Amino acid sequence: MVTAAGTVRSQGRTASPRYRAAEAALWSAHGLQPAEHLVELPEFGTTIRILEVGAGRPTLFVPGTGGTGPYWAPLVGTLADRRCLLMDRPGWGLSGPVDYRDDDYGALVAGILASVLDRLDIERSDVIGASIGALWALRLAQQQPTRVGRLVLLGGFPNTEVPIPTFIKLLRSPVGALMVRLPMRAGMLRKQLKALGHGGALERGELDGFIEWRLAFQRETPSMHHERDMVRAIAGRDGFRPGVTQTRDDLASIHHPTLMVFGANDPTGTVETWRRFVDAMPAAELRVVDGAGHSPWWDDAPAVGRLVEEHLTA
């Protein structure tokens, strides 16, 4: 069931007015005003929040750990004739959590995305995923191929050739329990963003609005607590558990037209890593954006938007 959402309750509590205000400010800065829906998924014991912008061909957006909802705003603003459906991953943003411990991760995430499309009465959608959200998009395409049109993958994500990032290792460790309790400070967030390759955008002041929103997101939602639960379920000391990352055979089975956009400053793998990755897929291409980091549309939204628009309308 889909319901319009005036007040969103996350993990049994009302969303913080301070978070609401920060989110609205970031959307407003980009001239966008999304509609909000709650998608109930009783088969997974959770409720998913969807923000909707625009009209036209449906395009489902699946975020990474960098953010959700309004963090897509610079990219969404470049796309025309699109019904952009921006999903808060389970436990992330204002969506309820799910338990990742006992299920096959690939089957679980594909099932969640397919159920979201079912509740929205969408038979087939293009899918854009960022960071670990790209992994979700690939799993949907692999396991339920008729539900996906074209794929866009933004930034690096869990891969057999990419070591678990230091931040994720810390998050799954005992130190992570302290990390998710401490209030995020602006200096700490700027340091993280610089490490993710966004130093140029920071210096130009282009991430100031994002930082204000992300601080509210970190402080006013339980997202990082739930993200730590997911990380502990899918990542061990030596790597991701079986079924999280794709094998060569998995990739060879995905025939959907796929575009991967990788920022040259993204520390998640290298250009060569991702060139090998897309070469294993029958209909994929890699495009590299100079000067961009892990979330490349935040560094150069016009360039990334053009690449995405050209791919989706080809």
Fold blueprint:
Elements: E1 2-4, E2 9-10, E3 13-14, H1 17-29, E4 35-41, E5 46-53, E6 57-62, H2 73-76, E7 82-87, H3 105-119, E8 125-130, H4 132-143, E9 148-154, H5 166-172, H6 174-179, H7 186-195, H8 199-203, H9 208-220, H10 223-234, H11 248-252, E10 258-263, H12 271-279, E11 284-289, H13 301-312
Parallel strand pairs: 6-7, 6-8, 8-9, 9-10, 10-11
Antiparallel strand pairs: 1-4, 2-3, 4-5, 5-7
Shape, per Cα inertia axes? globular
Spans where pLDDT lies below 50 across 5 or more residues: 6-13
Distance between the termini: 33 Å
Strand order of the largest sheet: 1-4-5-7-6-8-9-10-11
Helicity, in percent? 25-40%
CATH superfamily: Alpha/Beta hydrolase fold, catalytic domain
Describe the structure.
- This protein is of the alpha/beta class and 314 residues long.
- The chain has helices spanning 17-29, 73-76, 105-119, 132-143, 166-172, 174-179, 186-195, 199-203, 208-220, 223-234, 248-252, 271-279, 301-312; strands spanning 2-4, 9-10, 13-14, 35-41, 46-53, 57-62, 82-87, 125-130, 148-154, 258-263, 284-289.
- The strands form 2 sheets. It has a 9-stranded mixed β-sheet, with helices on both faces. A two-stranded antiparallel sheet has the order 2-3.
- Helix 2 (73-76) links the parallel strand 6 (57-62) and strand 7.
